[in-house]
Amino acid sequence: MKVGIIGAGRVGAVLGAALARSGHALVAAVAVSAASKARAAALLPEARLLPADHVAAAADLLILAVPDDALGGLVAGLADLGAIRPGQIVAHTSGAHGLAVLAPVAAAGAFPLALHPAMTFTGTAADLDRLAAGISFGVTAPDELRPFAARLVSDLGGVVEWVEEQKRPLYHAALAHGANHLATLVAEAMDRLRDAGVHQPERVLAPLLGAALDNTLRMGDAAITGPVSRGDAGTVRKHLQALDAVAPGSVPPYLALARRTADRVIAAGRLRPQDAAPLLDVLSASEKEPVT
C-alpha cells in the first residue's frame, strides 16, 4: 500500500520504516521539528516531507502518530479540508483512543483503525529489531476491517490483541501504570541509592529488578518479596524515616505502593490479617502525619 505518516516522532517514524521494510511504499510524511526531520532522514529516507493534507491525499493507508490530545483536532482538520477520501484507511497509534476520535474520517467514507504498539520507542533503528521480535498491538477495528488489521500487524511482526472501544482507556492506563511508572520508580530507586553512597546504582539494581520483573510476569503476586510481604512493621518504619530525612517527596509514593502491596499479599493469603495489623498501623499513621 501507499503509506503516509503524519507525525515522524519516535513511534511514527519507526512504524513507517517497519512497513517499508515489509514491502509497503512509504510515500510521504509530516516532520516539523528539527528532531523529527532528522528522524525522518534516518528512518524514512524515501518519504517526501509534505504538509499534513498533502500526505493524506497521497496515501492509501494514513497513519496518525501524534500526541493523544492533538489527535482529535488533527482528524477534524483533515476532514474539514477534504483530505480524506472514501475507501482510504486511517489508523492512529494512540493507546487511549479508539474509533470514536476517527468519526470525522469515517463520515468521509474512510475506514477507521486504532493501532497501538505496546512498546516503548527510542525513535532509532534499534526499535525495528524489537518490533521484529514480536510485540503486541492493541487494536480496535470495525468488523469488516479486522482481517486487514491482522495482516497489517503481521507485516509489522506483531501479535494482535483486540481491545473493545470502551476498554481503550483502561487498556492504556494499565500500560502506562506498568511501564511509565516503572521508569519513575526505578529512577527514584537509583536516586536514593546515590543518596546512600552507592556509586553505580544501575549495577546494583539491574539483576535485582530483572529477576523481580521476570518472576512477576511468570508468578504474579507469588513473586512479591520484602518487608511488606513479611509484615515487618519495624523495617518499614525505618524506611519511611530514612526517606523523610533525605527525600520527603519519596514518602507518599512509597506509602501508596506499600499499602497496595500489603493489600495484595493479604488477599493472596500470604500474610494473615492479624500479622499485618502492626504494618498497616505504621502505614496508616504515616499517611496522616509526618514520619517521626
UniProtKB/TrEMBL annotation:
Residues 1-117 form the Putative oxidoreductase/dehydrogenase Rossmann-like domain. This is Short-subunit dehydrogenase-like oxidoreductase (DUF2520 family). It comes from Dactylosporangium matsuzakiense. Coiled coil: none annotated. It comes from the Bacteria. InterPro entries: 6-PGluconate_DH-like_C_sf, DUF2520, NAD(P)-bd_dom_sf, OxRdtase/DH_put_Rossmann_dom, TM1727-like_C_sf. It holds the Pfam family DUF2520. Residues 136-261 form the DUF2520 domain. The lineage of its organism: Bacteria, Bacillati, Actinomycetota, Actinomycetes, Micromonosporales.
